[in-house]
C-alpha cells in the first residue's frame, strides 16, 4: 500500500494513541458542544418567547409563537448551517483545514452573544434581530461540521479513527444535555426570585417581566465554550495529510506532526509527488463519480433521511412533553415555570436516552463497524416510531406515560447509537484528501436540508398538540427511517483501513508508480501497492 511507502501517512496510521489525540478530540469536540447547545437551547426558550411577545387576551390562552415565527426562529439557524457547511467545506479543501478553523469559532461566539440582544422592543424587532444573528450563528456552526470531522480523521490512527471521530461528534450529546441543564438552572433561579402565579389565576402576571432576561442569558452563554477553546484551536498545526498531499510539502508535514505526536517521520518528497500524480481527478469529474459516486449518494441520502427524523424529534419534544405528562399544561403554570419544566424534561430525556447512545457508538464502532451500527440504528428507530405512531392513543394516557417515555427515549438512543453518529463518521473516511472536506460538507448540508424539512414541515404536525397530527408525524418519521435503512447499503465498511486504502488513493499511486517503472518491476509494485 502507498501509505506504507509515504512515511507521514504510515506514521499517522500506525501511531499509538497519545495525549495529543485526546486534546484534539476536546478542541474539535468543543465546537460540537457549542453547535448542539446553540441549536437545541432555542427549543427550551421558544415557548417563553411566545408568552412574552405574543400574548393575546382575547384567546384566553397563554401567548404562543405563530407557526411561521416559530418555524423561522428555530429553522433559520439550520438554513445558516447548510450554507456554512458548503462554504467552509469548500474553503477547507482549497485553503487548508487550519486556516478557516478559527473563523468558525469567532463567528459562533460573536453571534451567540448578539442573539441575546434586540434592536427594538416590538415582537417584530426582537424576532427579526434574533433570526438575523441565528442565521450567522448557524453559518459558523456549519463550518465546524466538515472541518472538525476532516481534521480528526486525518490526525487519527487507523485502529481508533472511527472512535475518535465519533467522540468528537459525541460532544453534541454533552451540548444537548447542557442546553437543558443551563436553561433549567437559570429559569429555576429566576423562578425562586421572581416566580409569578399560574396563567389560570392571573393571565397577565403569569408572564414574569424578568423572564425577558432569562432567554437572553441562556442564548448568550453559548459563546462561552467557543471563546474558551479559541486559543487551543489556533495552536493546532495543519493536518499532515493536507500539508503532504495537497500542498505537496512532505518535509513540513513531517515537522508539524513530529511536534505534536511522539512519532518519528521521514520526509518522502519524491513519493508524495508520485502519489499526487496518480490522484489528480477533480470533484464531480467522471473519474470521481466512477470511484466515489455511489458513496456520495449513500452519505448524502442517509444523512438527509436521518436528520428529518432526528431534528423533528429534538425540536418537537417540547410539544410532546405535555402529552407524556412530563410537563403541566401551560394554563396551570407561569411562564418561567413552563420553561423550567420543559428544560427539565429535555434534560432527563437527553441524559438517559440521547447521551448514552453517542458513547455506545464510541465504544463499539471499531468492534461492530460503521455499517452495521447504522443499519441496526435506522431499523430500531423505525420500529419504535411505528409503535408510538400506531399506539399513540394508548400511550398518551397518563397511566402509560413511563412506557411512552421509554419508547421515546429508545428512539433517541438508537439514533445516536446508530445513524446520527455514523453519518458523521463515514464521509470523513470514504473520500480522497483533496475533496474530503467538500464531500463531508455536501453530505452534512444534505442532512441540514432534511433538518429543515423537520423544522418547517414535520413540526407543523406537533405544534398544536393534536393527537391525530402527532400520530401522522410519527408514522412519516418511521417511513423515512426505513428508507434510510435501505440507502445504507450504498456505503461500505471503513474500519481498520487507512484513509488512502479506503478512498482508493493508494491504487492511483500504484498506477503512477507502475507507469514510470520498467515492465519487469510491475508485478512487484502491484504486490506492494495492493497488498
Secondary structure class reads mainly alpha
What would you report as the Rg, rounded to the nearest angstrom? 24 Å
Q: What letter string, H or E per element, gives the SSE order? A: HHHHHHHHHHHHHHHHHHHHHHHH
Helix content: over 70%
Shape, principal axes of CA atoms: globular
Q: Count the strands?
A: 0
Distance from first to last alpha carbon: 6 Å
Provide a descriptive summary of the structure in words.
InterPro entries: MFS_dom, MFS_sugar_transport-like, MFS_trans_sf, Phos_permease. It catalyses: phosphate(in) + H(+)(in) = phosphate(out) + H(+)(out). Belongs to the major facilitator superfamily. Phosphate:H(+) symporter (TC 2.A.1.9) family. It is found in: Membrane. The chain is mainly alpha-helical and 531 residues long. The chain is 77% helix and 0% strand. The chain has 24 helices and no strands. The chain has helices spanning 2-5, 7-14, 19-53, 67-94, 97-115, 123-155, 161-194, 211-220, 223-235, 240-246, 250-260, 269-277, 286-324, 335-368, 370-390, 392-395, 401-416, 419-425, 427-430, 436-462, 467-487, 499-503, 505-515, 522-530. Helix 3 packs antiparallel against helix 9 and helix 15 packs antiparallel against helix 21 (467-487). The longest helix has 39 residues, at 286-324. The relative contact order is 0.15.
Amino acid at each position: 500500500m502507498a501509505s506504507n511507502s509515504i512515511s507521514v501517512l504510515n506514521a499517522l496510521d500506525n501511531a499509538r494513541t497519545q495525549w495529543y489525540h485526546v486534546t484534539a478530540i476536546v478542541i474539535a469536540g468543543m465546537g460540537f458542544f457549542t453547535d448542539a447547545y446553540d441549536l437545541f437551547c432555542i427549543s427550551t426558550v421558544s415557548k417563553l418567547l411566545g408568552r412574552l411577545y405574543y400574548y393575546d387576551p382575547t384567546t384566553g390562552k397563554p401567548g404562543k409563537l405563530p407557526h411561521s415565527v416559530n418555524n423561522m426562529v428555530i429553522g433559520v439557524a439550520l438554513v445558516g448551517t447548510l450554507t456554512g457547511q458548503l462554504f467552509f467545506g469548500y474553503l477547507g479543501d482549497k485553503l487548508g483545514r487550519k486556516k478557516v478553523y478559527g473563523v468558525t469559532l469567532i463567528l459562533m461566539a460573536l453571534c451567540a452573544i448578539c442573539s441575546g440582544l434586540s434592536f427594538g422592543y416590538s415582537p417584530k424587532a426582537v424576532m427579526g434581530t434574533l433570526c438575523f444573528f441565528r442565521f450567522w450563528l448557524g453559518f459558523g456552526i456549519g463550518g465546524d461540521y466538515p472541518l472538525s470531522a476532516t481534521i480528526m480523521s486525518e490526525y487519527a490512527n487507523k485502529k481508533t479513527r472511527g472512535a475518535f471521530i465519533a467522540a468528537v461528534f459525541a460532544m453534541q450529546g454533552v451540548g444537548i444535555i447542557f442546553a437543558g441543564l443551563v436553561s433549567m438552572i437559570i429559569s429555576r433561579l429566576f423562578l425562586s426570585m421572581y416566580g409569578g402565579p399560574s396563567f389560570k389565576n392571573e393571565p397577565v402576571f403569569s408572564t414574569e417581566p424578568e423572564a425577558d432576561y432569562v432567554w437572553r442569558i441562556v442564548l448568550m452563554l453559548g459563546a462561552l465554550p467557543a471563546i474558551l477553546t479559541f486559543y487551543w484551536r489556533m495552536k493546532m498545526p495543519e493536518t499532515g495529510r493536507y500539508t503532504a498531499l495537497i500542498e505537496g510539502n512532505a518535509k513540513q508535514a513531517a515537522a508539524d506532526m513530529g511536534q505534536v505526536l511522539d512519532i518519528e517521520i521521514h520526509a518522502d518528497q519524491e513519493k508524495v509527488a508520485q502519489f499526487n500524480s496518480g490522484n489528480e481527478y477533480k470533484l464531480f469529474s467522471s473519474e470521481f463519480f466512477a470511484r466515489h459516486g455511489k458513496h456520495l449518494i449513500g452519505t448524502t441520502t442517509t444523512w438527509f433521511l436521518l436528520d428529518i427524523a432526528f431534528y423533528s424529534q429534538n425540536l418537537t419534544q417540547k410539544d410532546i412533553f405535555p402529552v407524556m405528562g412530563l410537563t403541566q399544561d401551560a394554563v396551570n403554570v407561569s411562564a418561567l415555570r413552563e420553561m423550567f419544566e420543559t428544560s427539565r424534561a429535555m434534560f432527563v430525556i437527553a441524559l438517559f436516552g440521547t447521551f448514552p447512545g453517542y458513547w455506545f457508538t464510541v465504544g463499539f464502532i471499531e468492534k461492530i463497524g460503521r455499517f452495521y451500527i447504522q443499519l441496526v440504528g435506522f431499523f430500531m428507530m423505525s420500529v419504535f416510531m411505528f409503535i408510538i405512531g400506531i399506539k399513540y392513543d394508548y400511550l398518551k394516557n397518563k397511566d402509560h406515560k413511563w412506557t411512552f417515555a421509554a419508547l421515546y427515549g429508545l428512539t433517541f438512543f438508537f439514533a445516536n447509537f446508530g445513524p446520527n453518529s455514523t453519518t458523521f463518521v463515514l464521509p470523513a473516511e470514504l473520500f480522497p484528501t483533496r475533496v474530503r472536506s467538500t464531500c463531508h460538507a455536501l453530505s452534512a448540508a444534505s442532512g441540514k436540508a432534511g433538518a429543515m424539512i423537520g423544522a418547517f414541515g414535520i413540526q407543523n404536525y406537533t405544534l398544536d398538540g393534536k393527537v391525530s397530527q402527532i400520530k401522522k408525524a410519527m408514522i412519516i418519521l418511521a417511513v423515512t427511517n426505513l428508507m434510510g435503512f435501505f440507502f445504507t447499503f450504498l456505503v461500505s465498511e471503513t474500519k481498520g483501513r487507512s484513509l488512502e486504502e479506503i478512498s482508493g488513493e493508494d491504487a492511483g499511486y500504484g498506477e503512477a508508480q507502475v507507469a514510470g517503472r520498467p515492465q519487469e518491476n510491475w508485478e512487484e509494485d502491484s504486490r506492494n501497492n495492493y497488498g
